[in-house]
Amino acid sequence: MKKTIYYILLCIGLICSPYVNGQVIDKNALEDKIDALIPSQVNDSTPGLVIGIVQKGELIFSKGYGLANLSYGIPNDPQMVYNIGSVSKQFLGYAFAMLDVEGKLSIDDPVNKYMEDWPEFEHTVTLRHLLTHTSGYREAYTMSNLAGRRIGVDRLSREECLEVVRKQPQLEFVPGSRHTYNSTAWVILAEVLEKVMGQSADEWVETNILQPLEMHDTQIESYVGEVINNTAESYSYNKERGYRNEESNRAIFGAAEVYTSIQDLVKWINNYRTAEVGGKAVNDLFLDPFIFNNGLNNGLNSEYALGIGNSTYRGLKRYRHTGGHEAFQTQLSYYPDQDLGIITISNFGGRGRLATSKVAELLLEEQMTSQELKKSPKVKIEKDKLEQFAGLYLSPTFNNGTFNLTIVKDTLTYNGSNKLIPTSQNTFWINGPNVELKFEHLSKEKIEYTGPSGTKYILTRIDKWTPNKSELSSFEGDYRSDELETDYHLIVKEEKLTIQHRWNDDIVLDPISKDFFKTNRGYTVKFNRNSEGDILGLSINSGRTVNVIFQRKKQP
Length: 556
Prior knowledge:
Elements: H1 2-16, E1 19-20, E2 23-24, H2 27-37, E3 49-55, E4 58-65, E5 67-69, E6 74-75, E7 82-83, H3 89-101, H4 127-131, H5 140-146, H6 158-166, H7 184-197, H8 201-210, E8 219-220, E9 234-238, E10 242-246, E11 258-260, H9 262-274, H10 280-287, E12 309-313, E13 316-325, E14 328-335, E15 340-346, H11 356-364, H12 383-386, E16 391-395, E17 401-408, E18 411-414, E19 418-422, E20 427-430, E21 435-440, E22 446-450, E23 456-462, H13 469-473, E24 477-481, E25 486-493, E26 496-500, E27 507-513, E28 516-519, E29 524-529, E30 535-541, E31 548-552
Helix pairs in contact: 3-10
């Protein structure tokens, strides 16, 4: 009798407390711990988020916080559907893995094989490059912004996205040498699938992936204004106007436009482990990260596969993607060795965001490595030797980003805050961002920067510059981009060089170095001169596109 009671209690314990590689998950305690992670801005009268945790194929936790609809007081619910933004990309990525394995196409085919009236560049761009954000093509959203069109306000069509690449004068970089996130690539991929299969990409994905997985809640928006059943609304907030109901102004499947529920995403996560749809060969191809095959990073792992990240977090292997559209923000993470998946979807802009990594730390902390990989200096470097490293550095290959290294209390720092921990006489580690700086070729004043994924960039030391009004005035005039078919007018306004455009608000330029400025829009502007020192034009580098040229018009 005692033995029978023991086994009953044991079974109850196993049901209530699943294991993650030997670590017990107490469901009751878990809810309290997750509740404590919810952003303070979220309550029963605000928008919020939904959360799902799947372990060994079972949804062990799901809950909604805040409201899905403010007008009618409808609460967020894991059974409702939400726009998952760029998390949608992996469905099209999986479709291409299926078509490759079935022999319908090869992801190493050139894009030109399938696209009509398509530009020929010096280097070949393949479907694999599109799938892994390594193509060198322009990014339509960024280019539209530069032309004065506001994403989220002005409608962007599929054809306009394709025209951005058709008008591109040259590739931004050699394909396969860099990872630069590019949603336009996925618009092209949707076009390719339609040409190959004679069926729209959204219909093909629904028929061949969603239906076999019984993802019946999931819907793909095919046109702006389409009614999506059982969907939550999304909201932004500011102090002056209060809540704003955000709505989509584009419906271009491939890059985004999937609406789905926590329950359906559990079915999708389970396909990572079972390969129920596609089979092992397809799943392996889908999850295989791209290896850079050109340039400084040749041979390094890009940590991105066919529409999904494949990397590690604190020592644990992780598949992951994030997405943002309207005011929805989605994160999906799966730890294959622990068979644990975590999903968070917010309908409250940036205010309702909860990082899946925070939830993972609740469940997997004992198996994770320390967040600070190098806690103490391995070597000591005297202050006078540290001073040779101090200065302002520019990375032409990393969106013209800058690194400012300064000495603070005998310690070399990045931007005056993050300490550089010496690991050799010319190599430093920065905790937090977990990056490495290696100083090489000091005579040429260059350093090598290695990011968290191992990707390398070369930084060049530049001199700070504070121009006077006369020097700023020399940049005034009109500049035109034939590629964008738009004009910029530059004037000095309130002692600041300013870009004016008929549709944009004023863009203020702050000097960094000679002929080099940063803007209040997050991108940089570099002025180009001829051998006589005359200003020929300017080039713009933003987070997702580089070297957009504006030629200076001749003065009347």
